[in-house]
Amino acid sequence: MRKTERNFTNKVLESKRGDVQAVKSKIKSSVMATAFLFAATIPIGLSVPAGNVQAAVAQQKQVKKVNQKVKTNTSKAIPTIESRKVTSSTMIKAYKKYLRKNVSNKKYYAIVNIGDNNAPVLLRGTQGAGNDKTGRHYTGCQIYYYKNGKVVKMDTFKDGGRWLLLSKKDGQNYLTNGGSDFSIRICVKNGNLYRYQYYNNHNWKKNPENKWATSIVKMNGKVIKNMGYLDGTLYRRHTGYYTYLKNPEISFTKNVK
């Protein structure tokens, strides 16, 4: 009976020793974790206790090296770009400089606000010149725009038998011309030249002979939208969205070097 009791007692003691070892192991792990957190948060220059903390300090240094490497690689992969907004004054100065260097003093020009957010655009008169009491006017022109630090030619406007006008739609200004049955509107958006061409096909569904042109939208010379054949009602609806400015006639000025 006593032998059986001793065996039972030994088993109990062994079980308790195992529990004690497990508790000690957990305490040791907690101490290591606490030491690592402490070492990671203390300022550089303060002394750190030896022992278990040394391993934490070594890990901290390794983490710093990895973070520094990631930071360096990131700065190389994604360079910082500082965008500067080009002012209207800068654009006008660039146009004047372009005129002095590239356009003779016999030519006429105009600067109108039909660019991005109604930014300045340079026009050079090319055809249909005429004069009235408000100045010199043209039916056609070349269109130049300042972008990426340069003055670039965007298009040649030669459609229409009327003097060039300015109209507006939804706050954006447009270069405007046309005829009795068509209307052309031009502006610059996001550095791209948009050209809206509307054609009146009258009652073409009843009289097919009136079907003559589809209304389209072009961006940099490429058709991006086809509105189909507009009858008189649809034509007036589309063109009716535009309103002319108070003084719509564009007056051109003689270039002076």
TrEMBL record:
Domain of life: Bacteria
Protein name: Expansin, cellulose-binding-like domain
Species name: Anaerobutyricum hallii
